[in-house]
């Protein structure tokens, strides 16, 4: 996991006034990623701008996203960097899916250490 990439992404989100940017450590809960970064934008245009700015700043810092989904609509944009996945959403979408709560639940058969 790259703390540098997390810093770049959080900086890019803060530059454009993202709302409630947070990171969720999902190591031990997911085999495909280590960290979720989640932030809200105030409108579809803001969500698109936040995600685009994060991708642009990451590329400038030498990090290439594996994929970007949802940029067309701007309701929810997912940017996959492998170990780090960025979700930028409108507040109502974020509230509905509540990824922070979803990923805070311990998987069946595993206990919190």
From TrEMBL:
It is found in: Cytoplasm. Keywords: Cytoplasm, Repressor, Translation regulation. The keyword Flavoprotein does not apply. Its main location: cytoplasm. It comes from the Bacteria. Belongs to the Iojap/RsfS family. Functions as a ribosomal silencing factor. Interacts with ribosomal protein uL14 (rplN), blocking formation of intersubunit bridge B8. Prevents association of the 30S and 50S ribosomal subunits and the formation of functional ribosomes, thus repressing translation. Interacts with ribosomal protein uL14 (rplN). HAMAP family: Iojap_RsfS (MF_01477). This is Ribosomal silencing factor RsfS. It comes from Gilvimarinus gilvus.
